[in-house]
Amino acid sequence: MSISLDFLALPLLAAASLVFISVLAGVFSARVGFSFLLIFLVVGTLAGTDGPGGLVFDDFRLAFWVGNVSLAVILLDGGLRTDITTFRTGLRPSLLLATVGVIVCTGITGAAAYWLLDLSWPLALLLGAIVGSTDAAAVFSLLKSSGVKLNERVAATLEIESGMNDPMAVYLTLTFIGIALATASQGMAGLDVEGIFKSLLQQFGWGALMGAASGFGLAGLLKRMGRGADGGGGVRALLVVSGGLAVFALTTWLGGSGFLAVYMMGVITGNRARRQVRPSLSAMDGYAWLAQAGMFLLLGLLVTPTDLLRTIWPALGVSLVLMFIARPVSVWLCLAPLHFKPNEITFISWVGLRGAVPIVLAVFPVMAGVQGAQTFFNVAFVVVLTSLLLQGSTIAMAARKTGVDLPDPDDTEHARLVFGDFVLDASTPLETLCAFYGLPVPAESQQSVGRWLHQELNRPPVEGDSAQLGHAEISVRSMDGERIQQVGIKLG
């Protein structure tokens, strides 16, 4: 009598084959500008019920579990790679985008859903909250694979925002689910306004506390571990990722934001124990890619294209409003007061990538039993698909068109185009510069050109920043910490 191992072999064959096909297709598609994440999603859909694969998968609970765990791993990996010095230029705008920006985006997108999908206001705002935040997996991977070097302010803003806006999106989603269920059964009298604000404090309070405590604790532990005694970077990566998942689970159990906790833990650990963390980053990159592959494949399997077609046009309308109205308006409101340039605002608006987060959040109302929850899932899938297809494949082109990309050190032609033909030390007296090039002398001329440029920018300078002085454009050519080291001069 033999024991059949089909229960092991067949699911493993299907899963491994899907990942293999997705990666292989992604390698070729990346050459023409399509993202790996889009390929994972499409392969999962084609392998599903309505596709050639014909695999039947409708386990929302498993997809929800895998999605949350995967996002925790991706956020931890992103946090470990975030240099704390980027917070000098990126923290304030990122915090605004991750809070006020998500709320504004939710409101405008919710209004579009109310009109296009004929939903009640609680359900329309719920849909707006589901698709309201950018996605860490999409932003981290696509910025890395685009091959574009962005100026520090833009890159830091996008990366920190994507790591910090998930908690607000989760909070808003849970809040509007509660409002929708309460108003459906008891009307407006069922709303617990005090409970909503308590939940906000609890989510962010526990998330920040657990993230900070675990980050300092793990950094101290890694410093105490002897070199070579732990088996190398692979074992340390396993230690870090298991610790991160434990913190994510504990924070979520306490009612806090596990996403905020695990991202903060990564940032603090990665900066306080940089030498100890660096050898494990290659293994962490593998964990993050495996998490992304599994998450997008499972979410693709959940989609039924025949159901999707019933709401395709309203869903496309919601997606277009999100990309061309809601995201630009929210970014402009948050960044214009911080003296961001129009080209920077335009680029950050366009790179409001939606990835797995909206699809994972769309599972929340399904599991909560909200009426018509399948519609949210279908709309979220269309939003993600269009975002990865339109925005994800045009990052490099958008960076060049808006002028936020920086030249490679060896690309002298591009460097001249960006910085001009002349390079000066930033300590050069401003009066000397103006006299040599025949430029108008500013009122406060008793200072260096670097100091003048810093004052003109009215914000922390980064490489690529520039200001006009008469018929010349003076730009930041290189930085030494927070000090401008060299300036470029482009004569008009």
From TrEMBL:
- According to the entry, every stretch annotated as the Transporter-associated domain falls at 415-492
Q: Which UniProt keywords apply?
A: Antiport, Cell membrane, Ion transport, Membrane, Transmembrane, Transmembrane helix, Transport
The residue stretches assigned to a coiled coil in this entry are none
Write down the membrane topology: Multi-pass membrane protein
Gene3D superfamilies associated with the record: 1.20.1530.20, 3.30.465.10
Localization per Swiss-Prot or TrEMBL: Cell membrane
User: Transmembrane region positions?
Assistant: 12-42, 62-82, 94-117, 123-143, 169-191, 203-222, 234-251, 286-306, 312-335, 347-370, 376-399
Any one Pfam family here would be CorC_HlyC
UniProt-recorded name of the protein = Cell volume regulation protein A
**Which species expresses this protein natively?**
Hydrogenophaga palleronii
